[in-house]
Amino acid sequence: MSVFLMTMLLGAAAMLPVRSMQIQLPDDATVVMQRVAEIASREITERADVEVSREQRADFTVFLATDPALLREGFAVADALGGNVCITGSDAAAVLYGVGKFLRTSRYTADGFVPSGWRGTSAPEGSFRAVYAATHFNNFYEAAPAEEVSQYLEDLALWGANAVVAHFPTWNFTGFDTPEARKNIEQIRQLLLSAKKVGMKTGLIQCPNQGFTSAPEAARAQPNRDESRRRGNMGVNCCPSKPEGRAYLEEVYARLFDEFKDVGLDYLICWPYDEGGCGCAECAPWGGKAFPALSKRVAELGRAVYPNLDVILSTWLYDLPPSGEWEGLDSLLQQDYGWLNGIMCDDHFDFPRYPLDRGVPAGLPLYNFPEISMWGRNPWGAYGANPLPSRYEGLWRQTAGKVSGGMPYSEGIFEDMNKVVCFQFYWNGDANAEDTLREYIAYEFSPECAGDVIDAVRLLESAWLERGAKSVEAFKLLEKVDAALPAWARNGWRWRILYLRGLIDSELAANGGRMEGAVLRDAFDELTRIYHAENAHAPVKPPVVD
Ligand SMILES: [Zn+2]
Predict the structure, then answer these.
(1) DSSP 58-114
(2) Domain boundary, last residue among 107, 122, 137
(3) Can you list the residues of the chain whose pLDDT is less than 50?
(4) Ligand 1 centre distance from Cα of residue 232 (Å)
(5) Which residues surround ligand 1, an ion (CB under 5 A)?
């Protein structure tokens, strides 16, 4: 049954512009509530010339409060005396989701801030709505200043994201104590700490048989059987069926959990391939035998430090030939599933049929992992924003009603639009991708340009796999919008990556795909600066044009 409720929708901007506003908190406001108020203030003052205060009386007041009577993670936006507004949430994080709805339906004009006329209540259907911040390849999450990444995570929480999950890439380092590894761990710690500050949960996603480059030879795995050549290999997989391999992996993962003791971890997501896997006779079939068994052991190590750790087992690339992994997992979990809290499933292409047709093993909750980063272009994100709303809506509908949330695969900020589309599906399974983008565009750019930007996104999506006349047409629309945007929006990174996408695609469509010339060089340079991709690995670094 849907728990999504919306009682009364008056439409945005029913009120007059104000020049000053007060955000009032309860006397016993928690640290998270204080942060919610700071975020609201930051978002408003970035967009309009308004004085926002916590103490001083003003033209307009927003009262923030928690109300445990609301549905879990739900919020309410209601009228308050004197034409003011009260935003309540079932907890402090839910207040932030309500603030997000309020901010997106407010308006920011030359005359000041126009408070939203949206009134109603809403609660999420999906319980797990995680941002996967892949901190590797020197991508945005690894290379950008932690404060900048933290602000981005807060932006996603405004859309209802309730967890941040990071990955420590052991394969990139010789051990825990090298300067490079310490830097990576410190970045992850900062991101997870900032997530906690807004009430989000935190987690790690790891291939449990992956070691450091210094892993002893006796611990190493045999290569995966990989007839389709899709299972990946970062070069340091270990075999949990060998005593040396098992002992080594237990030592690595016990230490990894220790590294985040002061932050606290809520989730562990165990990953089978892309990194990971062993092709030896004892481990096979990996996904139906050694992988779940090792994940269970690593879960025990995690729970020794974090007793309430939720463990989710991914089935990424299960049942590529040779198959039998789903059946193997099913039969293992029939005997013993108490250690597991959910199953994650997805693919580069259509959603896998097994859990849809035959049910989720042990009846566990199912979470998706939409591939929003790498689809259709390489280097990923190198050409600017990659909005693909129709694609992700189509994939979402394949799972209708069977998925309880998920974790979009993210390599940076270029798929920002795809993320919010996914987070709104997790919130409300019946959401419409175009409505989500309309709300995004109104908030991040301008409500007046929503129609043109939607048209441009539609054209860019249809020309994603092959640039052509539609790319040129899309850029004309973006140029028209660019001239009309307020400066805060025009200079913001969200607009710049969309505009540059249009510019690059249009230029390449017109010049026969030649990577040359000052226009492209400047565009790629700007994207590199926005992504902090100066030292990025090839998959996430925009091309260099001389
Ligand atoms: Zn093995």
Answers:
(1) -SEEEEEEE-TTSPTT-EEEEEEGGGEEEEEESSHHHHHHHHHHHHHTSEEETTEEE
(2) 122
(3) 1-13
(4) 16
(5) 239, 241, 278, 280, 283
